[in-house]
Design a protein that fits this description.
By secondary structure, this protein is of the alpha+beta class. 36% of the residues lie in helices and 25% in strands. InterPro entries: Acyl_CoA_acyltransferase, Trichothecene_AcTrans.
């Protein structure tokens, strides 16, 4: 059974951060972006990154009732500066990778699905989240068309997942890691 989703209040952010951290520790595609092979270091850096992100008042954090699935949404404006990387002092190759990813990204402004994470993968929670949130965005879209949403992923399996929801590859980069920008139009 699909769970309803809701926008989180600040008091609910710790539960969302826990889901984000656990999902990204499970996803091997983050290893190039997090300093050190030590899982404890990776966890601390992700905790810092996600805590900072969800505290931003311009970010919308959406979750299922049980917090098994969390999504993070941002409205990117022309004035926004992109972070060099998800760590505070990235290695040069990581900084170069993120610069290239954002260089091939879409022109601003746009709605950005920054993160979609589940505590337990493969149970439909991510699909449920996307179906519900995209339906809400479509209702809010003043043009009467589907809401245009952008995202990027470094996990090739995610490309096929997002295609099921109407996303197509917008651009891609292949360096020490790969990334795909996708758009839903």
């Amino acid at each position: 059974m699909s769970q309803p989703i809701h926008t989180l209040s600040t008091s609910e952010h710790p539960a969302a951060i826990e889901t984000l951290v656990s999902a990204f520790l499970r996803d091997g595609s983050i290893v190039p972006f997090v300093h050190g092979p030590d899982p404890k270091v990776q966890q601390e850096r992700l905790l810092t990154r996600f805590s900072t992100l969800v505290a931003d008042p311009t970010v919308e954090v959406v979750a299922s009732e049980d917090y098994n699935c969390v999504s993070v949404w941002e409205r990117k404006t022309v004035e926004d500066k992109e972070a060099a990387a998800p760590t505070q002092q990235p290695r040069q190759e990581v900084a170069d990778f993120f610069k290239k990813v954002y260089d091939i990204g879409p022109p601003k402004p746009y709605l950005y699905l920054a993160f979609l994470a589940t505590k337990v993968a493969g149970k439909g929670a991510g699909s449920n989240m996307l179906r519900q949130k995209l339906a809400l965005l479509d209702v809010e879209e003043p043009t009467g068309k589907k809401a245009q949403v952008y995202l990027w992923t470094a996990n090739p399996a995610n490309v096929e997942f997002y295609k099921k929801f109407g996303f197509v590859v917008y651009s891609e980069v292949h360096l020490q890691a790969s990334a795909w920008w996708m758009v839903r139009e």
